[in-house]
Structure prediction request, 573 residues.
Amino acid sequence: MTAEHPWSGPASRPDGWWRSAVVYQIYPRSFQDSDGDGVGDIPGITSRLDYLAELGVDVIWLSPVYRSPQVDNGYDISDYLDIDPLFGSLDHLDELITEAHARGLKLMMDLVVNHTSDQHLWFIASRNPDSFKRDWYFWRRARPGHEPGTSGAEPDDRPAAFAPSAWTYDPATREYYLGIFSPGQPDLNWENPEVRQAIYEMMRWWVARGVDGFRMDVINLISKPGELTSGAPIQDPPACRQIATGPRLHEFLAEMNREVGLDEQNLITVGEMPGSTLEVAQRVTDPARHELNMVFTFEHVELDNTSASKWDLAELSLPTLKDNLAHWQYGLADAGWNSLYLDNHDQPRAVSRFGDDSPEHRVNSAKTLATVLHLHKGTPFVYQGEEFGMTNAPLTEIGHYLDVESLNYHALAVAGGTAEEQVLRSLARKGRDHARTPVQWDDSRHAGFTAGTPWMPVNPNYSEINADAARRDPRSVFAHFQQLIRLRHTNEVVQEGRFELLLRNHEQIWAFTRTLGDQTLLVVANCSSIPAEIPLASLPDLDGAELMLGTHAPANASVLGPWESRVLLQTAH
Ligand code: TEU
Prediction:
């Protein structure tokens, strides 16, 4: 157990501390291997804490390291109270917490409680219809008039995210269980109060161990719509996404907050909420309601789809993207709080997706995207490798993909008659595998990630793009992230300033102000690979403003070079 130090426990978490914090996400499998098995691990993370301290971030979000069969790389947990041997041991985790706290870094655990693994003891007990744990999951009979186990007999037509059906047949009991993600990830029944108490108890155990908060996986799915909770045969099943935000979501979140003492202990809480709206986020993050600090919206990362399917590619225009972020800024301006992210372990690399990863523009586009994101109001999230501009990988054939989502999509789409080429094009644009190539630490073999054979090949551009090279270059993406993080820490206008979007319809320039008291911060960013004339007449007159940060040495006051951005601060006298 971590001892009480001034840098750990509630005393280290003053009210609202997370409002000026920057979070760094670690996907352990791909971060740093310490034992040569080709998979990143906890001692590897501990060995890189000085690097994170140098970057200047405040919080580590650790993607799951719990015991898991790894069907979905740890998002399928078989024991919440232990560490998977692949990643180390509880002792290693205690050491990570202590070493992180000693550097002023906090640790936020991933909490995956919408579902467990099918290997969790709770689910194994639930397989027995006489067990009181039967009701801890969703067991349902076959569709009326159908022979259990035959094609089309599933209780409804809902597909799983990573499998053809959300229902898995159990021949022993001739019933089906619900797994919205995959058969290896059965959904927990939050209607059952014992389930909820077991989860809260587990969360309290982690808090006592010294963690500073939780990132909650698909937390808006914990309350299921009535047709699933009633136990009656399901009529007219709704589309998959509508399973989000069931009627008891707010009640469950408030109960969790109370029972675990989330707000009482100023723990950081971030709810991942695919498919949820601003209105839901307003309720969840309103401090008066004591639910969560902030949510991850998916709206801005679904603007390059034509439909609910991420694989139906659409071109994304800058005004559409700016408008979406602005919608959330205005919507959460007075109560509530935003999270700010472009990258995570489920998304392709931001510089390849929203920027220009060609050798000519990679550095400036990575810097400019970061500038824009970090200077919105909210808590910014940095995903491993983003801080030095890691790009998508050259994944060109199905054999290059390892992710359960990618493989399922490929199998189903090809079987459904979609041309292989088109499937590969979608995967190359949106596959989660891009985020999961090992972190490129230096230009040595396997980029310094492992002494063995990496579980997923390192992006071949590592000799050019790596943390070591970036750290030594004062004009690197890394140096720019350091400056953005410092700006957030030292300027109240960055933390709390009121947001206003400017030049809303401009196709190239992303411009906005942040205002607090007598200070105005102006961000002007050219989000394109060609020069942009600044419509000065349409911007506030910031005479005498100080240039706080820029990607280029300013050459021409009224023109921005490709992917050039400027941050100006004016203090009224
Ligand atoms: O992701 C939630 C989620 O909705 C994903 O299915 C997401 O839509 C998809 O990855 C986008 O391509 C969370 C985790 O972040 C993800 O890694 C897990 O696979 C998923 O939950 C199940 O736990």
The pocket of 1-O-alpha-D-glucopyranosyl-D-fructose is lined by residues 72, 75, 112, 161, 181, 217-218, 272, 274, 310, 345-346, 405, 432 (CB under 6 Å).
